[in-house]
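Hypothesis: this fold can be encoded by more than one sequence.
Test: take the structure tokens below, design a sequence, compare later.
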């Protein structure tokens, strides 16, 4: 299945303005404009608006489902799937560290065992599933829209993959003990509907873990339209701690934990994005002149110093203040009240 209906003539600039995905409201206030696809350098400018009814922020107007498919082409799995390095698959390096940190946080509320089944929505190459199997021996199921990533994903007897949108797959109800949405729900066209489906799929005693960028992170107002977690246009919904909680509760779930995540990279990458745009450097991976390569080297040195002396200590402070650019929420189905 593809995001794009067959045979349709699609323009990448096709847009639609739908009611709020949380409360159905139709009155909005613009909170940010002039954002672009800084990484892929594809056309279009994007405006973000906050719903007056519930506070959920969304890209408005947003690319149609078919136009989004054009923005997604090559954005994640690219063309080099056959030769992915282990660090890209999440077996080594930063990907493994990040997934280890996520599973550690989740473990504190619901420890996975070998009889459990994990469903990872937006599983990409299956790095989180790989680590969960290694640690807990559980069964793992992955869902992703990116067929290239699924083709390259880790194969294992206790791993299966589904290509498509969660609400359209019709997976078996009550089958999963842990359902994870790691940097995924912000991509979703209808996050509340998706969470409702996740609730249906949850086994008794199971939990849902959601990690998304946090609009109230302290770096976001500093970097504005260059703030990396905006990731235009793939990110369609932009959550605060309150609006994420409201979406989860609207889906009939009960929040049991919500916290800031310590990812000391958002400011350095946002600064790199802002400098690249200000100096007119080509998008990552594009051809560069000799002068641009030298300039890129100088920027790399500046970013390394910035990371060490600004990002690391600032991220630690923001984490202590619960105001980093990413948050994790863990929810369960409401418990029956005692008689
Ligand atoms: Zn709303």
């Amino acid at each position: 299945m593809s995001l794009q209906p067959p045979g349709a003539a699609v323009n990448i600039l096709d847009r639609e303005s739908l009611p709020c995905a949380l409360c159905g409201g139709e009155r909005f206030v613009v909170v940010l404009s002039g954002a672009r696809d800084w990484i892929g350098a594809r056309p279009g400018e994007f405006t973000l608006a906050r719903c007056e009814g519930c506070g959920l922020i969304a890209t408005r107007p947003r690319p149609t489902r078919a136009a989004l498919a054009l923005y997604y082409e090559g954005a994640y799995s690219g063309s080099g799937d056959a030769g992915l390095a282990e660090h890209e698959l999440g077996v080594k390096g930063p990907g493994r560290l990040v997934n280890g940190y996520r599973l550690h946080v989740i473990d504190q509320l619901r420890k996975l065992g070998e009889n459990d089944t994990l469903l990872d929505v937006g599983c990409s190459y299956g790095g989180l599933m790989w680590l969960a199997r290694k640690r807990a021996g559980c069964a793992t199921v992955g869902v992703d829209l990116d067929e290239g990533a699924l083709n390259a994903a880790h194969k294992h007897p206790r791993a299966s993959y589904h290509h498509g949108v969660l609400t359209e797959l019709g997976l078996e109800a009550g089958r999963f003990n842990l359902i994870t949405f790691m940097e995924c729900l912000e991509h979703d066209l209808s996050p509340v509907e998706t969470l409702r489906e996740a609730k249906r799929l949850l086994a008794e005693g199971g939990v849902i873990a959601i990690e998304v960028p946090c609009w109230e992170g302290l770096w976001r107002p500093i970097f504005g339209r260059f703030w990396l977690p905006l990731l235009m246009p793939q990110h369609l919904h932009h959550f605060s701690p309150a609006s994420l909680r409201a979406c989860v509760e609207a889906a009939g779930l009960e929040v049991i934990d919500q916290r800031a995540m310590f990812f000391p990279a958002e400011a350095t990458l946002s600064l790199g994005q802002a400098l690249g745009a200000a100096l007119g450097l080509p998008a990552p991976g594009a051809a560069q002149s000799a002068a641009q390569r030298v300039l890129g080297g100088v920027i790399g040195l500046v970013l390394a110093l910035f990371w060490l002396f600004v990002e690391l200590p600032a991220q630690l402070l923001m984490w202590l203040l619960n105001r980093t650019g990413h948050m994790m929420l863990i929810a369960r189905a409401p418990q029956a009240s005692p008689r």
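Residues 85-225+238-262+327-332 form a domain with the Rossmann fold fold (CATH 3.40.50.150). The radius of gyration is 20 Å.
Hypothesis status: open.
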